[in-house]
Specification:
The chain is an all-alpha fold. It is built from twelve helices and no strands. Helices cover 66% and strands 0% of the residues.
Length: 277
């Protein structure tokens, strides 16, 4: 499967990954089972509660997915397992159901289906893909930094779990790239809260947030500003030596940034002659 495109998440929700690329993955997942029979052409009668042989039922589900009807496909894949729980097709249908829910943007059900697959088949060769679907389902729900970041934390946990378990897979490679974007989003939230405290004159609370970015998200795009804000808040708290220290760190690591220029000017104006402790 091709690695999905990566959209910036620091200021907005990520762009949804093109379903066509993941549909290609679904086709690969289904390739190991040769489908006998043909898919039905009906409507609602094709979804559930109609007893059919496993090959026809699976073929109907795959056909609906290929035709861009992922919700119907998910229901049909669920029926494969319900009607034929001990068939080899049931295992495949569980994962295809999770994928179909993902394509339909029903991310909660996608996560539930993938987790159920893993609970029943933890050592299956398709387990990495199930972990990947879980991570993607959380990733698609990341909101901008002005909102609660619980789902961003869930995304980070799921991506880290994938990398930890299957570091050599293509899914882990994509997960590492997405982790950079997730970290940037979390750092952005810390910065937003820190700026709010700073505007409110709550210097110490602001410092805690900015320091968290420097300590835990130092590779993100927010680190230079965090160091500048620490320079600002240190001066506001009457600790010029600390302000000089943060400005010096900023200059060492980001000498050409606008934040260093601002920090340098600020220190020259308010802490000239002070040396870092």
């Amino acid at each position: 499967m091709q690695t999905p495109a990566h959209a910036a998440v620091s200021a907005r929700a990520p762009a949804r990954i093109a379903p066509t690329r993941l549909v290609m993955a679904a086709a690969v997942l289904g390739a190991s089972l040769v489908v006998a029979g043909c898919a039905g052409k009906g409507g609602v009668q094709d979804t559930a509660y109609v007893a059919r042989d496993v090959e026809t039922l699976y073929a109907s589900a795959k056909d609906r997915l290929d035709r861009g009807q992922p919700k119907v496909a998910a229901a049909l894949f669920d029926e494969v397992e319900r009607q034929h729980p001990y068939s080899p097709w049931a295992r495949r249908a569980q994962l295809m159901s999770a994928f179909s829910y993902y394509v339909a943007a029903d991310y909660d059900k996608a996560v539930q289906s993938a987790q159920r697959f893993l609970s029943i088949h933890p050592g299956n060769k398709d387990a990495p893909y199930a972990y990947y679907l879980i991570a993607l389902s959380y990733y698609e729900q990341i909101s901008d930094v002005t909102r609660d970041q619980k789902v961003t934390e869930q995304t980070r946990t799921a991506l880290n779990e994938l990398v930890r378990r299957y570091p050599a897979t293509e899914y882990a490679s994509d997960a590492k790239l997405k982790l950079d974007l997730v970290e940037d989003n979390l750092a952005g939230k810390e910065m937003e809260i820190g700026r709010f405290y700073e505007r409110s004159g709550n210097w110490l609370a602001a410092q805690i947030r900015f320091q968290n970015v420097v300590d835990n998200f130092q590779t993100t795009s927010h680190a230079p500003e965090a160091l500048y804000r620490l320079t600002e808040t240190s001066l506001a708290l009457g600790i010029p030596t600390e302000a000089v220290k943060y400005a010096a760190v900023l200059g060492t690591n980001y000498p050409g940034s606008e934040w260093y220029e601002k920090a340098y000017a600020l220190v020259q104006k308010n802490a000239s002659g002070v040396t870092a402790s």
